[in-house]
Amino acid sequence: RRPHDHYAKPQVCKQFCSENKIVQKRENYTPKSRIVDVMLQTPMFAFNRSDSDGFSAFRDQYDLPKGFKGPLTEYDFIVVGAGSAGSVLAARLSEGGKASVLLLEAGLGESMLTSVPTLAPLFQMTSSVWPYLMEHQPNVCMGMENERCFWPRGRAVGGTSVVNYMIYTRGMKEDWDRIAAKGNYGWSYEDVLKYYMKSERAHLREFKNSPWHSKDGELTVEDIPFRSKLSKAFLDAGKLLGNRRVDYNSPDGFGFSYIQATMSRGIRMSSAKAFLHNNKKRKNLHILPNSRVTKILIDPATKTATGVQFRTNGQIYEIRAKKEVILSAGPIESPHLLMLSGIGPRKDLESFGIEVVQDLPVGETLYDHISYTGLAFVMNTTRLTLLESNVASLGNVLQYTQFGDGPLSSLAGVETLGYIKTNISEEIGDFPDIELIGTCASLASDDGKVVAKGVRLADWLYNDVYKPLEGIDSFTILLMLLHPKSKGYMKLRSINPFDQPKLYGNYLTHQKDVSTMIAGIRYILQMIDTPPFQKFGTKLHKKKFPNCKMFEFGSDGYWECAIRTITATLHHQISTCKMGPPSDPSAVVDPELRVYGIRNLRVADTSIIPNTIAAHTNAPGIMIGEKGADMVKQTWGL
Ligand SMILES: Cc1cc2nc3c(=O)[nH]c(=O)nc-3n(C[C@H](O)[C@H](O)[C@H](O)COP(=O)(O)OP(=O)(O)OC[C@H]3O[C@@H](n4cnc5c(N)ncnc54)[C@H](O)[C@@H]3O)c2cc1C
Fold first, then answer.
1. What are the percentages of helix, strand and coil residues in the chain, rounded to 5?
2. In sequence order, what are the beta bridge partners of 305?
3. Best mutation site among 155, 164, 260, 313 for ligand 1 pocket (most ligand atoms within 8 Å of CB)
4. Which of 246, 237, 219, 84 is nearest to 164 (CA)?
5. Looking at 172-290, which runs of residues are DSSP E strands?
6. How many CB atoms lie within 10 A of CB 604?
7. Which of 391, 397, 474, 466 is nearest to 440 (CA)?
8. CA-to-CA distance for 45 and 35, rounded, in angstroms?
9. Cβ burial, residue 428 (10 Å; 0-12/13-18/19+)
10. Could you tell me if 373 and 478 are in contact, meaning their C-beta atoms sit under 8 angstroms apart?
11. Over the stretch 485-514, which tens digit does the pLDDT of each residue have?
């Protein structure tokens, strides 16, 4: 071969060459926030605001290693998506130098601003996310813009770990043991714990010598440096109601605790920072940001994945995988890519004229964790919460830039967790059905500019109910429905890879989900009545939602209307490429993550999680990346 034959050449693009307009518009958007404004006055964060990409000066760069002019024509492994799972996979498969790895990512490198924990809600309005909207579902998200639920997903090197709230949770022992008991060999708690611990570098004051945490991994897990007095009140109230203080990331995790966060000295620890930064100069690891995969290349005769097609800078490339293609594009794009490539429900694919390579139930299962974020509590005591007007001070910015602590290191007010079993649960033993999340902020703490806008809360609701709280100390306690019985699904919208698929959450279609959430709200109100909160004169803000006026405030009918009005997702969509044994008709991948019926193709990301788990899904995604990498290595003797 002549040397230039090693490099991939762009091909003529015949169709679907440009991305949809929404994404292009967002590329040029710099979010507005008082905290950012103050930060920009400091030399540390100064940058050119007239730049069309407001964050360009402070973006992580991922140039190809020295000596490479472009991507090669083939690699041993192609990993699609540099998110929570994909970053780990690419790092592990390229270690030791035995295999060549191409990591393709649609988004750009993360910016310096995404590193600041308290700005987490800001990025849901930027080009760092895929701005998915759920299809309209009557009677949910009634208080969101156009009554549509918003499902942003991270779009950056680091994926959703670049825009998430950094809560580090692994799931209960029972969750993983149940998954294994359904025929998913190798996925029991004991099995997955090994991989959680492989990644982890814990600095947790309370659990310094715990056997359930490791100090040797790449992913720093820390206590949040900032704690408000309300965090202690939350834990004390929990204790008074009979809950234990626990390490929720131990096998005995049913109880209350301070949050453990993926951060390092107050700075966000994305999976890109943890797994790619130190490895990006490896000669055998090529990372291509701004490169969107549009199709998996599959030989229909042998049913073997042979490579991918992707678009970068308006050019289309096809690159071959000598060993495997691994999809880590997340719970929406991994199934989307499978369907576009002929792997999915036969009837649906045929209705779009897509040649069916493998008939599989891709996208037919979709679970999510919904939450009610609408409770607001006021107090007779001031300076207990994170009012943006107080946080946005030069002193706080300097404190953060010098020491990595202070209010800017807060996860936008999120501080504590409590796993509870409501009085209507039918589960046996310590199996929680609700997670409570203690905070020191409410929807009004930033005057409605960021958090409410980020979740697309409708102005009619915000102005009527929350605006009166602006400038006043107020906070919320959230609840998350851990094991919804309502099941959603997703479908192709068209054969254009740039069209978002149709997403159906099917939220609250099972009445038990509604009653469990109401029981969770009542539990929170009980907590608020205890002395730890009452010593601050804490009271529920009792302004009725305008669309729920027909119900008596506080009745079951009222709370049902309220949760159907603010039906907030905590963005843990899973199961769209469900893992299961061959006997499971709803499975897309086997317990070694191989797509059924196709050779050399795996899915390794949160889309494979088969059941709901009591966890936020970043750490599980990273664990799946670790475990997936080991399985791939084992297959190829690496
Ligand atoms: C606002 C928000 C807050 C959250 N907070 C928390 C939290 O506090 N704690 C927690 O544990 N979890 C949280 N989550 C959820 C968690 O972060 C995600 O579930 C997890 O990161 C998903 O990991 P993944 O590897 O499956 O996918 P992702 O991390 O989403 O990675 C997928 C990657 O693939 C890329 N990609 C997609 N399609 C293509 C394509 N065609 N070509 C190339 N690249 C592609 C994407 O751009 C992305 O980078 C939050 C999520 C959101 C949205």
1. 30, 20, 45
2. 298
3. 164
4. 84
5. 200-203, 219-223, 256-258, 260-261, 263-264, 267-268, 285-288
6. 28
7. 474
8. 12
9. exposed
10. yes
11. 999 999 999 999 999 999 999 999 999 999
Q: What is residue 490's three-state secondary structure?
A: strand
Is residue 572 part of the annotated active site? The answer reads yes
Atom of ligand 1 at shortest range from CA of 81: 34
Q: Which residues line ligand 1 (CB under 6 A)?
A: 80-86, 104-107, 124, 152-156, 159-161, 163-167, 169, 292-293, 328-331, 333, 337, 571-572, 605-606, 616-619, 621
Query: What is the residue with the minimal CA distance to atom 50 of ligand 1?
Result: 164
Amino acid at 263: M
Gap between the Cα atoms of 576 and 586, Å rounded: 10
Q: Enter the DSSP assignment of 543.
A: P
Cα distances from 316 to residues 9, 294, 326, in angstroms, run: 9, 9, 20
The dihedral sign for the CA sequence 175, 83, 40, 54: negative
Residue 160 known to bind ligand: yes
Does the pLDDT value for residue 610 go beyond 70? Answer: yes
Q: Which residue has the tokens 């990301």?
A: 605
Atom of ligand 1 nearest to the CA of 157: 49
Give the Å distances, CA to CA, from 107 to 33, 160, 231. 23, 11, 35
Place of tokens 């007007």: 389
Record the tokens describing residue 36, joined without a space.
């950012």
pTM above 0.80, yes or no: yes
Distance (Å, whole) CA 84 – CA 107: 13
616 is catalytic: yes
Tell whether ipTM is more than 0.85. Answer: yes
**Local structure of residue 462 (DSSP, 8 states):** I
